[in-house]
């Protein structure tokens, strides 16, 4: 229909101006708003005193903002940075585990700026429950971290997950994660949302499984995959796992490029990053934390 066509055109324009989805969009800036402190899972590579390891390097935890403070930061930055095209929520925990704050933040910013592109990143556990609202809020780009499509492999990546008031571990955790992630991704694609998949490559666990993940998400209609290196964090279950060399990561990406487009320029930005991807900018936010990447 015409409506679907024009929706697709808008999505395409937004994607062209999104620095994370288009290498040629480096002149555009994005802001991450740290309004999501809680997480509903415990990844074995994560230490919760840092930002979500799905998107961010181990560093300092972002200072949490309320939705009103996030709007204030957005306005300040937008005034100084007219090339700001994207507002995203990437933690420091999981966006969907803090849905009230996250949806309120997007509503407030949309009222102020009808043009801005919205994105969020999530571990995918709660996607089926929120996919409809994500579409209704006009969030056009979603990143899901999907480290396995096999429940047994997935179960080795989480120490536990918390779902509907219960904790699950091992294969049970993996089964819930994988089915919710895949069902949620399918719902997003049906709503014409552009989906990027982050995959953390973990030695001895999912290293050989990556092409299968990529084939699965290609079939689901995802836009790009971002195959990342695991950077072991002290204090995490996987702290002693040796990272897979970048050379090998590049080989895996090359192999997967025959299946679907690969992302090569993700900076693993902090949950409070501001600016273009080339250069995170330090802006005086009047007493707010300095949103500079370490
Ligand atoms: Fe950490 Fe992110 Fe995993 Fe939550 S989803 S445990 S914040 S890496
Ligand atoms: Fe873009 Fe990657 Fe930074 Fe997210 S973490 S804003 S995808 S470069």
From TrEMBL:
Q: Where is each Radical SAM core domain found?
A: 25-270
Q: Give the protein's recorded name.
A: FeMo cofactor biosynthesis protein NifB
Function, as annotated: Involved in the biosynthesis of the iron-molybdenum cofactor (FeMo-co or M-cluster) found in the dinitrogenase enzyme of the nitrogenase complex in nitrogen-fixing microorganisms. NifB catalyzes the crucial step of radical SAM-dependent carbide insertion that occurs concomitant with the insertion of a 9th sulfur and the rearrangement/coupling of two [4Fe-4S] clusters into a [8Fe-9S-C] cluster, the precursor to the M-cluster.
Q: What is the lineage of its organism?
A: Bacteria, Bacillati, Bacillota, Clostridia, Lachnospirales
Q: Which residues of the full protein are shown?
A: 471 to 764 of 880
Q: Which domain of life is it from?
A: Bacteria
Similarity field: Belongs to the NifD/NifK/NifE/NifN family.
């Amino acid at each position: 229909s015409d409506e679907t066509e024009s929706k697709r055109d808008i999505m395409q324009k937004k994607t062209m101006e999104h620095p994370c989805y288009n290498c040629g969009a480096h002149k555009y800036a994005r802001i991450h708003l740290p309004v999501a402190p809680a997480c509903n899972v415990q990844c074995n590579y994560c230490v919760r005193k840092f930002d979500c390891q799905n998107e961010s390097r181990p560093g300092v935890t972002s200072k949490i903002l309320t939705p009103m403070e996030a709007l204030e930061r957005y306005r300040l930055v937008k005034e100084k940075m007219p090339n700001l095209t994207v507002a995203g929520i990437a933690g420091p925990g999981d966006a969907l585990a803090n849905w009230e704050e996250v949806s309120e933040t997007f509503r407030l910013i949309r009222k102020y700026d009808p043009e801005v592109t919205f994105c969020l990143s999530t571990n995918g556990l709660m996607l089926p429950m929120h996919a409809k609202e994500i579409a209704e809020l006009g969030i056009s780009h979603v990143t899901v971290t999907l480290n396995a499509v096999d429940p047994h492999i997935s179960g080795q990546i989480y120490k536990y997950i918390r779902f509907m008031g219960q904790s699950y571990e091992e294969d049970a955790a993996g089964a819930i994660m994988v089915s919710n992630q895949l069902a949620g991704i399918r719902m997003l694609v049906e709503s014409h949302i552009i989906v990027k998949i982050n995959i953390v490559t973990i030695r001895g666990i999912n290293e050989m499984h990556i092409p299968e993940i990529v084939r699965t998400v290609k079939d689901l209609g995802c836009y790009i995959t971002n195959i990342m290196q695991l950077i072991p964090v002290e204090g995490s279950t996987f702290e002693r796992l040796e990272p897979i060399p970048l050379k090998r990561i590049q080989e895996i990406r090359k192999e997967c490029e025959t299946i679907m487009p690969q992302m090569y320029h993700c900076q693993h930005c902090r949950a409070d990053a501001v600016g273009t991807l080339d250069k995170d900018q330090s802006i005086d936010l009047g007493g707010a934390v300095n949103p500079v990447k370490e």
